Amino acid sequence: MHPEAFVDRLHVEISGPDDGPAVLLLHGWGSNARLMAPIAAALSDRYRVVNIDLPGHGLTPPPPAPWGVAEHAALIAHLIRTRIGRPVVLIGHSNGGRIGLYLAGEPEGPTLLRALVLISPSGMRPHRPWHYYLRATLARLLKAPFQVLPAPLREAGLAWLRHTLVWKALGSSDYRQLTGVMRETFVRVVNTYVEDRLARISIPVLVFWGERDQAVGRKQMERLVQNLPDAGLVVLKNAGHYGHLDDPATFVAATRHFLATLPPLSM
């Protein structure tokens, strides 16, 4: 199934005036639209807010096959074109921010997106501890004997390997909790980085980062902002990875100010 055909399976929540400027909310990995609902409630007095569950999250079923960020971005692009019908401000948390950055770097990005508001977005390469590289090397060594087999035997062997205790011990806690298509989707998504796209993102970007965030580091956010043509960083005091929930007053006030400064859509 092409990502565009999946759009009718999305769980979508819409609030706000029909003719209001469009805002699209994308939650992070392992989350859902419910955790973005406070943003919708805060903005729906003026904005047409579209809040969705991404594939395999909340009330939306998993994708029909393992998807990477490119497929998620294609799905969002089709949603904007066919269901929203006008350019949106995309507010993305964590992996939702990664998808937003990826889409903004596509050739059609400026025609679909007016701006990005990102909350601790993923997609920037982190500094990895030595044991991360050790686990990655061991995983490659375990997979190597199966890679030389014919396709049917290779897939059967890799499927067996993924169910062994040794393989599961090498994966992250998020990986170990997943099964089926979502496990491979997770691998594809978290190994996609957006650094090579940043220079061609021409729309305004506002980035929020909580100073107590243990999932995304400040240096990653500073590199992100420095490499975007038009971006600013807001550091949320005493907030963690879910900055929009930890400090909603600052997040909403800064976001509303940012949205108010955007040029109106040309008709």
Automatic annotation (TrEMBL):
AB hydrolase-1 domain sequence ranges: 21-248
Pfam families tied to this protein: Abhydrolase_1
InterPro entries, per database record: AB_hydrolase_1, AB_hydrolase_fold
Entry's Gene Ontology molecular function annotations: hydrolase activity
Keywords: Hydrolase
Organism: Rhodothermus marinus (Rhodothermus obamensis)
Protein name in the entry: Alpha/beta hydrolase
